[in-house]
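Lab notebook, bench 4. Still working through the backlog of constructs that have no structural model yet. Next entry is a single chain of 140 residues. Request: give me the structure tokens for it.
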Amino acid sequence: MEKPEVFIFFCDDVRHELGGRLSLMGLHGTQAIIEGDSGYVKSFTVGAIIRYISDEPVEATIEITAKSNKSVSDLPALPPLLTIPMDPGERGIIQNGNILAEFGSIKVHAGLSIVATVTVLGDTFTREISFVSSNVPVVD
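Model written out:
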């Protein structure tokens, strides 16, 4: 079995299109700029696009955690773990799976980081985004 490919992303919104396609709106890099030191993000999505080869059922999980330079009470409420079963495919054929964790308005502040960890077929992939004040130079 080949190692899966996983693309973890952070964006403002995901639109579900005809034919099973996804349109990603407001795709973020490793940092997101906020006005001032804190505020609300109207919409925020953590997602993963997974490509794998397996003729057995596959389960993928995404764990979303937050860390901060402030107190624990300042962290946004995030689901701790999402699990998605993915269909087995024909032997040797690449399959695609998607995991999306969509949030409404969440409170964010400078110094907050959100970490997404995806585990599929025994492999783990991680990506992190940090929120920075519009007053701080951004390095991406």
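Notes after review: The two ends are 34 Å apart (CA to CA). The mean pLDDT is 80. Flag for follow-up if needed.
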